[in-house]
Amino acid sequence: MMRHSNQHAGLLRAFFGLASLEGLLTLAQLLNLPGGLSAGRLLLIAPAALLTLACLWALLRSWRRPDEVQRQATRLADGLRGHWAYWGLLGLCGLVCLAGIYTLLLSWKDDDPYVISYLIRLAPFVLWATLLSAQGAVVLRWLRYGDDERIYAGWQVAVSAGLIALVLLLLLSAWMAWTKIGLAPDIVAWGDPGVPILPGQIAAALAITAAVGLSGNLAIVRLRKSGLGARGLGPGGIDLLACLCLWGVAVWRWGAEPIRPSYFSPTPVPPNQEYYPYSDAAIYDSSAQSLLAGYGLGDVVRPLYSAFLALAQGVSGIGYQKALAWQIPLLALIPPLMYLLGKTLHNRLSGIFVGLLAVLHESNSISLADVANVSHAKLLMSDLPATLGVLAITAVIVLWMAGPRSRKVYPLLAGGILALATLVRAQIMSLLPVLLVAVWMGSRRDRRVWINLSLLAGGFLAAMLPWLWRNWQVSGRIALSEASQTSQIGLIGQRYSLVLDEEGGRRLPGESDDAYTRRMIGSALRFVREHPAETARFQAGHFLHNQVATLLVLPSDFPLANFLTEYTNGMLLKQDPNAPAVWERCCSLHAYVKNSGYWSDWDGEVPAQYGLPLLASLVLLATGIGTAWSRGRGAGLLPLAVNAAYSLSNALVRNSGWRFNLPVDWVGYLYYAIGLAQLCLWGLAFFRNKEASLDSGALKVEIERSGTPSILWRQAALVGIVFFAISAAIPLAELAIPERYREVDVQAIIANLQEKGIDSRGLATFLSQDGAQAMVGRGMYPRYHLAGQGEPGSGWPSYAPRDYGRLGFYLIGPERRQVILRTPEAPDYFPNASDVLVLGCSEGDYLDADVVVVMAPSPVILVRSPLEKLACPGS
Questions:
Q1: pLDDT value at position 875?
Q2: What is the pTM of this model?
């Protein structure tokens, strides 16, 4: 007891000693402020001087009357035995500390001289109060528990690994700041960062996670008291319930976000005022429409995704919203997969935390569609499905490494998912080396390396062979996709240059695929030989830019400080009362993106005011990496390796950022969430004086039960058959779906036009001219634009700006063709996906229509205006 009393007295003595020193420094700062000893200055100095004297008096008294101080310290320690007193005082210290930090940030961020003049005078007081509150929290903890500490067991590996990771991250950051590699924009394909998650959203997700954890613990306690604990859900049931809840929240939250106009879903226009896909999104959907019309996918670049869109619209009907009704529930599997990763690499609360962050991240993406270049769940784009595939592969391998003996078919599962994901985006094939290394690491101890590698290869081949056979039948080659391979090779040939030469990647007239491929590869190899340093520079730059894009998903600013800045400016300067609300100006999602500058032609310079939040993110990332390593070793670093491999594949085609980094930008907030959760656990363990368990969710090697076969052949065969069936369904659908327009008699339709006032004989004469065509098919994505209006980008002549009003649409049938019908007004009737007959003149990359017949139950005829006579140019 005497020893504890002496310790308590020593704590108080140290507290008052530090407080006295800080008080003297505060007085020195106040006296050093410019302006002399005015009356206002004396009013500031007086309370600081009185408090400093009080601290000095308490310090001297602790030396002169140690017995009395010991009694008071013991009395205070006894008072802290009560939970409400202890945790209430700790909460008060925490609030004062947070308020002080944000006030200091306010003085750092505000650039108004009038406001700064006040903040500079308050800063010494605020800093002192912040330090006193932090010191007070530590003193309260030691007064309650003394030096009886058993809370650091198992921390050493995580802390050491985290420190190593932090040092490496800081060294890399310093090198990038010095060389500008990864920061200074490259001449080509230098995309914006990913969509951010706001600090307030992180705090809300953390609070919800804490509430879920507390409620779960209370429920377990009650179940045990009632004797029902043994009949509870169990670990598997808890995981299933958590996954279902996260999936349901994601479906609800993403579905509630309205669609906003973006490049891939332009603003609705007449005649239907509907959202339609555009650019890449229209390419994927048009392949799906071609399959539904019975003409196959064609030379498709995302076969599995286009097949999925075909399935969704084949069952529910053709339309943008009907496709989203299938897509959102599918993509809502992303948060549950994030939960499984977080749970396996850390614990279930971390899994819930990172799952909620995934929901918020995607919700932000949908909300920012009209502000930043993003791809999200409400676009018909392959980026989020690719993210789902990469996440599923990573989660399966991590779960397998957590229990390789009880999850023997997981390598087969990973191989099959890899193949299917590759059919969504061929670039995912770059993860194969990482998977091979991971399977080798997970197998080397039990000498099953070749078996597991064979399972991985078997799953991949089972899902890939049907598609490769289909391509061989269509083109005579074994290839993933002619279009995607040729376009990627063309990009390399075009981008491996000292200057951006868009013409350098174009085909020569009459050039075959083989000749084009050889020429592009030869051009790239020649550039690498002649400019090795430049090649290494831009490849390293794009690789590191992807890492910067991943980092900027995390908080890079403190919106609460912005709020305080805006609020104080509004109070002191009496800003325009008609201006937007303070919160909208400073702290909303749109204001965050607008004010930061990272999403609007960022030049690579990081303003000083963003240094502290970025440093905080690096610390939490390093903590998460160290924690994951301490628990899972190689499995803990697998997401990091996946990110590196995928980023490298982007860098090799001189590409980075934007939606191209989306499939792996979840890696950043996965480690961030683990790091923040672990720091919270360490803090809670410190103030509760209870060891923070490192076993919950840790990776464990399970002991194989006797009698279990080395390979579950029936399970493996079933999984392989499922993957084979999914892949084989695509070519089977191409064979099984009949051609929609095979029985359409074009001549009969033309003859019937006579009844509608159209000269059928004139049409027949017109069609005999060179360049004249009659085409039948499905009219997709009808958009009407006035003269001078249109959609940006190239490759879609139907919607390009022109100097006349016109209706543009995409015809899908025996042939795919862009169509333009000149007309001063939008037609009254032209539903999307209508069966149409088009009569017009070929103008190279589009068909200039003279007559369009919408083959509704009562045909609607649209005629070019003005139309002097049916004739093609040059006839």
A1: 59
A2: 0.88
